Amino acid sequence: MNLSDIRLNYAKGALNEQSVGNDPFEFFGQWLQQAITSLVSEPTAMVLSTVDKDGRPVSRVVLLKELKDNALVFFTNYHSAKGRQMELNPKVAALFFWHELERQVRINGIVSKIPESESDAYFNSRPRESRIGAIISPQSQPIENREVMENDFNEIMNRGADYPIQRPKHWGGYAITIEEIEFWQGRPGRLHDRIRFRQQKDGSWMKERLAP
Ligand SMILES: Cc1cc2nc3c(=O)[nH]c(=O)nc-3n(C[C@H](O)[C@H](O)[C@H](O)COP(=O)(O)O)c2cc1C
């Protein structure tokens, strides 16, 4: 296997200062919609990077569940490793790679917890299995073995379909308010298009093209 021989030429699209417009949040919505309609696998999956107490970056995938007020909403366990990291440092990065479209979007922003009523609404919309999973999983903690987890899961499942499954307080949503966002479109000869927006103090967006 020779990894250095693996290379693709990107030629599916182009991006310019005009086509991207002046509202990056709206443009991101358009790209996301195109990713969904193009049947990209897991179009809402984003790599979320946080920073731990020693300044070490930590990345993992989470699912985008809502776009709202210049922010990206995802759900997780507030006591997880990422939850604790975001408590100490709310600056995060999010990254989408839609390889079928030869597109990447990089986002930097600040996270905050969404209102409890909105977390309740989303939690209650999830399948029963997922809700029970959120209750019994001490996310990011070492556990004895798989059986312990399955036993806890089955114990609640066996209480019957009428047993109320409420959102635990340690599970809910975060909104990443975008401060900086870069759209990347692969181009032939590695002359890729990169357009970055940075939010200014007055709320307007500064747009610039970056070298690939
Ligand atoms: C495709 C995919 C989607 C995922 N979606 C979520 C999610 O929405 N929320 C979540 O907490 N973890 C999600 N995970 C699991 C996380 O990547 C990670 O394992 C977990 O959140 C624990 O991360 P932490 O220990 O850094 O807190 C997903 C993983 C994959 C591969």
Question: Would you kindly provide a brief summary of this structure?
Answer:
The protein is of the alpha+beta class. The chain has five helices and eight strands, in the order H-E-E-E-H-E-E-H-H-H-E-E-E.
Descriptive overview:
The protein is α+β, with helices and mostly antiparallel strands. It has one domain (3-118, 170-209): Pnp Oxidase, Chain A (Roll), CATH 2.30.110. It is 25% helix and 34% strand. It contains five helices and eight strands, in the order αβββαββαααβββ. Strands 1-2-3-6-5-4 form a six-stranded antiparallel beta barrel. Helix 4 (128-136) crosses helix 5. The mean pLDDT is 97.
Q: Give the beta-strand count.
A: 8
Shape: globular
Radius of gyration over alpha carbons?
Answer: 20 Å
Largest sheet descriptor: 6 strands, antiparallel, barrel
Q: Hetero groups bound?
A: flavin mononucleotide
User: Please, what is the CATH homologous superfamily?
Assistant: Electron Transport, Fmn-binding Protein, Chain A
In the CATH classification, which architecture applies?
Roll
List keywords for this structure.
Pnp Oxidase, Chain A, six-stranded antiparallel beta barrel, 5 helices, binds flavin mononucleotide
Secondary-structure blueprint of this entry?
Layout: H1 24-37, E1 45-51, E2 57-68, E3 71-77, H2 81-88, E4 91-98, E5 103-113, H3 116-125, H4 128-136, H5 146-157, E6 171-185, E7 193-199, E8 205-209
Antiparallel strand pairs: 1-2, 1-4, 2-3, 3-6, 4-5, 5-6, 6-7, 7-8
The structure holds flavin mononucleotide.
